[in-house]
Amino acid sequence: VITFLSDFGCDDEFVGVCHGVIAKRCPGAHVIDITHGVPRHDIRAGALMLRAALDYLPAAVHLAVVDPGVGMEQPSAQGVAARRAIALAPATPDQLLVGPDNGLLWLAAEQLGGARRAADIARSPERLEPVSATFHGRDVFAPVAAALACGKALEDVGEPIDAEGLCRLELPHAHVRDGALCTHVLVVDRYGNLTLDASAEQLAELGVVRGAELELLHAEDRAGGERASTVAVYGRTFGDAPAGAAVLHEDSRRMLALAVNRASAAALLRVAPGDELIVRAP
Amino acid sequence: VITFLSDFGCDDEFVGVCHGVIAKRCPGAHVIDITHGVPRHDIRAGALMLRAALDYLPAAVHLAVVDPGVGMEQPSAQGVAARRAIALAPATPDQLLVGPDNGLLWLAAEQLGGARRAADIARSPERLEPVSATFHGRDVFAPVAAALACGKALEDVGEPIDAEGLCRLELPHAHVRDGALCTHVLVVDRYGNLTLDASAEQLAELGVVRGAELELLHAEDRAGGERASTVAVYGRTFGDAPAGAAVLHEDSRRMLALAVNRASAAALLRVAPGDELIVRAP
Amino acid sequence: VITFLSDFGCDDEFVGVCHGVIAKRCPGAHVIDITHGVPRHDIRAGALMLRAALDYLPAAVHLAVVDPGVGMEQPSAQGVAARRAIALAPATPDQLLVGPDNGLLWLAAEQLGGARRAADIARSPERLEPVSATFHGRDVFAPVAAALACGKALEDVGEPIDAEGLCRLELPHAHVRDGALCTHVLVVDRYGNLTLDASAEQLAELGVVRGAELELLHAEDRAGGERASTVAVYGRTFGDAPAGAAVLHEDSRRMLALAVNRASAAALLRVAPGDELIVRAP
Description:
The structure is a homotrimer.
Chain A: E1 2-6, H1 14-25, E2 31-35, H2 43-54, E3 61-65, E4 85-90, E5 96-100, H3 106-111, E6 115-120, H4 136-149, H5 154-157, E7 159-161, E8 175-177, E9 180-188, E10 194-196, H6 200-205, E11 213-218, E12 229-234, E13 246-250, E14 256-260, H7 265-269, E15 276-280
Parallel strand pairs in A: 1-2, 1-3, 3-5, 12-13
Antiparallel strand pairs in A: 4-5, 4-6, 6-7, 8-9, 9-10, 9-15, 10-14, 11-12, 11-15, 13-14
Helix pairs in contact in A: 1-4
């Protein structure tokens, strides 16, 4: 089994081409598309989706490509870093990860017990020559994933590198301060729903129970000294509040999420990924 | 074979996660994605798509998830009903349906001869524990569909319930009145094309032949007493009219549909799903 | 193996229905979706995507449907031509192409050595009766592709026709004139990036090297006598220029492409597919 996640979208032939490469190199492989709708170049959103899916996937080679630094030999004018191409074996057996070394694979590797062995696959004997400047998914990652799915060893597809030196992805950590929960916005989806870095357990520690009213407050002052804020119900689902009202709930990834029935929580609180939100009982 | 229809969209990992659950539980299953682009929470559109696809699908477990009432224990503040989770066996052998009991499966069950046996699967031994409040596709429906595809019996995946008590989906019925055909808009697609609840046979009964000009009239007065209306040609395809002109034709589901070449029929007639349209020879 | 490309999009059940037809007719077939996001009715974009994918696909029956002339018995009011439905065998063995005879298959056939044999499949014994007016993908193309994938011969699925008489797709040709490269816009993608009909080799012939600054100029005067133009760097990837700056680079299809970092090259140069752009060293 190969699982496949990317930010390629569905408008072009890119996903199909990678499937073709895999079908040529490892005809028996069963490919499960996790999603190709990761927001373009959003490494953190891709890493969170991959981690969220992992528990529900069979043992597999996990191929993931969100790759703003593809083809760069040095950092770009916008500060995007050049990156290595890697395959890695985590502590959990029968699982392998293939993709760019830009943090995309980091949360998944952690969830699988941490990276144990890693290989630099930029010059893999499995790669398609000539390697293009912009589509390593096709030319490097997919053929290496296919080779691994067909039984090749990590040592056979690249040069061993130190698993300690891989690019990490650090997420902020929600914490309690002065009786309030300080959380951070990890992802804003297309409906304006917010995924936070906090868990239902952390709310419970504050003594908050289902049905309680909470205040959510942007941690930063805006020009003029005001902070965006809203009142939200702590519910089980969207439906636990009237249209236009905010509901804080545990989402399907077991993370706290804020949704506004038929409206955008992001717009209401004027937040972007990375912003801090303070949750407290009024 | 498992077929899979939902309103999950392609931006998130939700579809891939369900594929993963199925691959883990029933590795040999062949999953055919019907679509995951059903408009969000639009049970009727999903039910119509599933019915439209059914004749062209192999014998299968049909997994369908459009589920505004997921996780609710009582009706929501917006009046969305709580619903059961079900699996059902219709009169046609070798076909099974799995999904929420909110009408989504009803048209498909009817097309397969009607539901004969049904089971409540909310507490299925196949479910993934703990069942989340918002993602029964992953936690209940997919694992049950996988178990059925791998040969488990309906009795083994849930508690038997009375098939007579399932949630129905009633569609309006086109009918002839005063020499005109009274139809209803079932679906408005993203191009503004309208699917109507009438058939080519019903037009033929009125003596309308291909190439005829027809008048289409919104059944309801607008403020001021005017009704939106248009003239349409009764054609075979879109191409049978100049740009901007309306064509009434039989669509690929064998239902009458109204399209305006390079424009929106919905905007022209100011209609929404459920509205009545009167079709008559001028 | 069957590969499948279309402009059906993902919002409806159309792609899934074709998969269903294939699974019924040839249960062992492995279907690789190249893309279903070809811009609606854009034959040239579809033909270019199919050709771009071909080198990376296994030997297969290639099913492609972008079909503005579906169901027409004569040219439409908009001048869209009626077309035949065809299957063809190119010079390369173990490859077959199935689709409308409107040019969509032409570039792929050329890449596979040219069409050697062809069959008109409109009345194929494999077709689903009654054939609808608007969905030959389901009723004609998919069942014929399935039959071919299951081993039927071209002669068994349709009436032989002269492969010389197939509908061609002519692309413009970039050429050097007065020391400048005259190119044409083949495709504009959703980000406003332009695919041109020129190769890196043609730029090299002009003596242009990586890192050089180039002028790009719309070949046609606008009202008032001005031509839209921009300066672009000849780079390896997007990242080789600051935000807002234009980069000419070789894309993953090995064609020259123009991108503007975080903006639209099409808007900057006011170009549409087919327009001529002049590239020259300033």
